[in-house]
Amino acid sequence: MTAYPASNLISALPTLFDAHGAVDLGATRAAYTPLAETDLDGVFVAGTTGEFTTLDDEERLAVCAVAADVFGPERTYWHVGAASAYQAARLTASAVDRGARRLAVLTPYYFPATGSALLGYYQAVVAAAAGVPVYGYLFAARTTVPVSPDLLARLAATGLAGVKVSGEPTATVGAHVAALAGTGLPVYSGADAEFAEVVAVGGAGVVSGVSSVLPKPFLEVRDALRAGDADALAVARERARRAVDATRQGNLAHLKAVLDLRGVPAGGLRAPLDPISPEDRHALAADVADLI
Hints:
The chain contains 12 helices and 8 strands. The protein is globular, with a radius of gyration of 18 Å. It has one domain (8-214): Alpha-Beta Barrel (TIM Barrel), CATH 3.20.20. It has helices spanning 25-36, 57-71, 85-97, 115-129, 140-143, 149-156, 170-179, 195-200, 215-227, 230-246, 252-261, 278-288, and strands at residues 8-12, 42-45, 76-79, 103-106, 134-138, 162-165, 187-189, 205-208. It is 46% helix and 11% strand. Belongs to the DapA family. It comes from Micromonospora cathayae. Pfam families: DHDPS.
């Protein structure tokens, strides 16, 4: 098989809360510390997996700062996307002041932003970043803001350093890769289970929520891709698929239950989701026992 030596695995990290729903920075650090001992290529902080829509700006920056301290600034992508250019630019400037060296920025959300508004949004963020690399984050299913490959090329020209595409099939990721051909900008997918497919269409790798609690199978996939080892890749892909299935495609309650299984008390959710049931927790423990 073809080797993909530049394949990267970035883990999307959860945020931990205490019994009263407050951000628990100590527990968050405890969850991040063992993951930092792996050779992950990076971590994506305070994104969808990090329940960012439930955090105020100061909480979000504090969680990102903990991650940067644990993983190092070069491996940490601070997510500073917001519903408006005003808020995103303010978050960006604050993150840079606190030492951010990589930024990720979701498109505006809720209101269906126009193409011209998106261009203004990223121009404002790139200016506020003052030279710190800014990676765009596209997630039409959650934001109501689709970005076509042609529009992405225009957004990239504002000074983006790369892009993450979530909630889209690999063929669409490939179209975004093609739109940026010749720019050298990396395109990542949020599809945990499609790592091999993503790099096969020219993607740089995946930003994976499941790997934040079950990193081993995804690191095995990455290493097999880098080595061009078809046999190892087949085994690793099956293990990664099992991890995705066991956590119900990265359901936040299931991800935090895995942390509990690993001996890291994960607390509850702020996101309006049901907690994992005792029956599901028991099944999860059996399903992931050999993946931890």
